[in-house]
Design brief:
The chain has 487 residues and is α/β, with parallel strands linked by helices. It is 24% helix and 17% strand.
């Protein structure tokens, strides 16, 4: 037997302790819960980042560094292929099609979508003693009137859903009204207006606008506010914080700063993604500079696939959605398969890759596991705990199925490598019309074996009626029972 020194024993014990972190782990008395930072890009594709697509035409060194320091997922999905419903699922752990919004998105004057009294990630963490803040694109409706009155306090809004503080814009950067709000108040009323722009990349709708609103400055402004919050939390070291950063990019309008023009080989879109990567770097730098890195779960992902169309691909060699079929809004993989990178030093192994099936709705159950929170039955109905995978402790599949949804309300269900799409066409923007009527004697839907056919080119709907029948019953069960997570 070889005796070891006290120093070596302590080092081994520390390494063993770090490696043995388990879901629902018990923390020592007085230990501070980890901070949680969730950075959500808007329309960033699976193929935009170097760490996912070696042929990307866009420099993304900060996202690459984050992947090197943490884990990136190759089979992560948004719960929907478009903005609003995806964000609903992130904050509630529930599929949005269970809400009043059955397809499409809310607009700048839409009322609040998240139901009053529903538990959110923010309210759950606030109950655990967290300071909860959000910045950026909200896009989940504000107020309770049929048309939001921005001259009045914005209730219900983020501060009614668990956020101690929120600063941002009401909806997408191409939807009026164009203004900033802080907590429940508008900072500057939209007393001016814009005629809008119909250009492909620089598109935004006409409508009311605050006199000093500058489209090009929204991304830097949102980032600056998030960085300020991180710096402020340094004076409250005993209280953990949750920071939700909903970037407005690279959703249209693509308006990169002048200094970012020409940085990519994918036009204004690529330059805008490069600028976004810089903003990600500023957030990471603020976390590191304030000494938060070792006790912060940092997540970077996207709300759906990229809005990168056939004419964009004809103009540039860049493939924003890599080789997946389709784009934002589609039921096909390009619509909802997204980048997802998580870093937690000492817990998540650097440079690791997860090939498990995951969904953004899983964030709530995962955050609950990180903070040792028990979820009630009427919350996070479609949220699975991914913490065992992040910690490298899960050998089996956490999720064996997933329900997807397109812009026009088409459903898909995936189980293992089989994916059933309940209709023909893309269900979104890749095909016109987005829904195709079945031909006489032809298939009524689409069935793909993603292991053998990842590009969804060979429809097996008629050849494998057994699989179609099984997945159809599974989808009906999930829709009828009102939940999918284990109980």
């Amino acid at each position: 037997m070889r005796f070891v020194s006290r120093r070596e024993f302590c080092a081994r014990l520390a390494a063993l302790t770090a490696a043995s972190v388990l879901p629902g782990f018990v923390k020592q008395a007085g230990a501070v819960q980890p901070n949680i930072v969730f950075v959500l890009a808007d329309d960033l594709g699976w193929g935009d980042l170097d760490c996912y697509n070696s042929r990307s035409a866009i420099p993304t060194p900060n996202a690459n560094r984050l992947a090197e320091q943490g884990m990136h997922w190759t089979d992560m999905h948004a719960s929907d292929a478009i903005c609003t419903p995806s964000r609903y699922s992130i904050l509630t752990g529930r599929y949005c099609w269970r809400s009043s919004l059955k397809k499409g998105v809310t607009e700048g004057y839409s009322p609040a979508l998240i139901e009053t009294g529903r538990m959110t990630v923010a309210s759950m963490l606030k109950a655990k003693g967290y300071y909860t803040a959000g910045v950026g694109k909200w896009h989940l409706g504000l107020g309770d009137a049929s048309k939001t009155d921005y001259t009045k306090p914005l209730h219900p809004g983020p501060t009614d859903l668990g956020f101690d503080y929120y600063f941002g814009i009401p909806a997408s950067l191409d939807m009026p009204p164009y203004l900033y709000f802080e907590n429940d108040r508008v900072l500057e009323q939209p007393t001016s207006s814009t005629p809008g722009s119909k250009l492909r990349g620089a598109f935004w709708r006409e409508g009311p606008m605050a006199p000093h609103f500058d489209f090009q400055q929204v991304l830097p402004t949102v980032t600056k506010k998030a960085v300020e919050i991180i710096h402020q939390r340094a004076s409250h070291p005993s209280q953990p914080f949750f920071l939700y950063v909903a970037l407005p990019s690279p959703h249209t309008p693509w308006l990169p700063r002048r200094e970012d023009e020409g940085r990519s080989r994918a036009g204004e879109y690529g330059d805008y993604v490069a600028e976004e990567d810089d903003m990600l770097g500023e957030l990471l730098q603020a976390i590191d500079k304030n000494g938060f890195a070792s006790n912060t779960v940092f997540i970077f992902t996207s709300d759906n696939g990229a809005d990168w169309r056939l004419d964009d691909m004809a103009r540039y060699e860049h493939r924003a959605n890599a080789e997946w079929r389709g784009q934002k809004a589609d039921i096909w993989e390009g619509g909802h398969r997204i980048p997802f990178i998580a870093r937690w030093p000492g817990h998540i192994r650097p440079g690791s890759v997860a090939s498990q099936l995951g969904c953004l709705s899983d964030f709530m159950a995962t955050a609950a596991a990180i903070t040792d929170t028990t979820l009630p039955p009427d919350a996070a109905e479609d949220s699975f705990n991914l913490l065992p995978v992040l910690l490298g402790r899960e050998k089996g599949q956490v999720r064996d199925s997933l329900v997807g949804h397109s812009w026009n309300g088409m459903f898909c269900v995936q189980e293992g490598n089989w994916k059933l799409e309940e209709g023909l066409g893309s269900g979104g923007w890749s095909s016109k019309p987005e829904h195709v009527d079945p031909a006489p004697g032809g298939p009524k839907g689409q069935l793909y074996d993603l292991a053998a056919d990842p590009r969804e080119e060979h429809n097996l709907y008629q050849e494998r009626a057994d699989i179609v029948g099984r997945l159809s019953k599974l989808l009906e069960q999930f829709q009828r029972q009102g939940y999918t997570r284990p109980r």
